[in-house]
Design a protein that fits this description.
Number of helices: 6
Distance between the termini: 53 Å
Largest sheet: 7 strands, mixed
Oligomer: single chain
Structural class: alpha/beta
Number of strands: 14
Shape: elongated
Order of helices and strands: EEEEHEHEEEEEEHEHHHEE
Strand content: 15-25%
Helix content: 25-40%
Length: 276
């Protein structure tokens, strides 16, 4: 039986439990992972969507009182359940407020705004916040100091790459954040979607290499098709991706083009893009 089964708590390590939300889909894979950290007092990471059954399952799975609710970022599959869970448990909300723009959960209002390097110290664990902009400007990863497990939200997920969606998403920032996580040398990556990822540094290096290969392909496509729109470029730069996904791929393509533009390697003229 798969451990990625909605509603069934799975103990991944001592004091770390995963609970999968029932929100599987194109953008969420098997669903959003909610994590419960601690036993004497509990921190919930990413309560997920505001689904009563999932929130009830979180409360039932907690071994001790839920004292804190942390979110990695405010996309609608990660944070909307936070307010209701806080109301039910009295827990404090920790994270960063939603930035302006689309696809943001503005209902999340943290009691404590976390900055890079801030720590949450409990009776049996310490979590350190790592600010990792790129997928989202307010994205945080959380490092469990005892196990060196890194809760990565949507910055790194299992089995796929994430969409970088400008203007809040930024490809250059995403790559810098990946490099920083590699420098931390975590023992495992614990993602917002999918299973635990072993050999983290290798996994991160592969992600960086994949993005840079795509960037090179985007640059070559731009040289071959100057003056093209996103809709035209995506058919060539993402010809290895099903056409049904090209509308989504356009967002990451735009992020690559904006990075090339910032580096003086591309320029935009209205809806058309040109090599610089």
């Amino acid at each position: 039986m798969s451990t990625l089964e909605p509603g069934r708590p799975v103990e991944l390590a001592a004091g770390i439990t995963r609970l999968l939300a029932p929100n599987a889909g194109l953008m969420t894979g098997p669903g959003t992972n909610t994590y419960l950290v601690g036993t004497r007092e509990v921190a919930v990471i990413d309560p997920g969507p505001a689904l009563d059954a999932h929130l009830d399952a979180i409360v039932a799975a907690a071994r001790g009182p839920i004292r804190w609710i942390l979110v990695t970022h405010t996309h609608p599959d990660h944070s909307p359940g936070a307010a209701a869970l806080a109301a039910a448990t009295g827990a404090a909300l920790l994270g960063r407020p939603a930035p302006a723009g689309r696809h943001q959960d503005t209902s999340f209002r943290p009691d404590r705004v976390l900055e890079d390097g801030d720590r949450l110290t409990a009776a049996d664990f310490t979590l350190t916040a790592i600010h990792t902009p790129g997928h989202a400007s307010n994205h945080l990863c959380y490092l469990d100091e005892a196990t060196r497990w890194l809760f990565t939200g949507d910055h790194i997920i299992a089995g796929s790459t994430v969409v970088i969606d400008p203007p809040d998403g930024n490809m250059a920032a995403y790559l810098r954040s990946l490099e920083r996580l590699a420098e931390l040398a975590p023992a495992a990556l614990v993602p917002g979607h999918g299973d635990v990822i072993g050999d983290p540094v290798t996994a991160i290096r592969r992600l960086v290499e994949h993005r840079l290969r795509r960037e090179d392909k985007v640059a070559r496509t731009l040289g071959a098709h100057p003056g093209s729109t996103l809709q035209a470029l995506v058919r060539h730069a993402y010809d290895d991706v099903p056409a049904s996904l090209h509308r989504i791929a356009e967002r990451s393509l735009l992020a690559h083009l904006e990075k090339l533009e910032a580096e003086g390697r591309a320029r935009r003229a209205g809806d058309a893009w040109h090599p610089a």
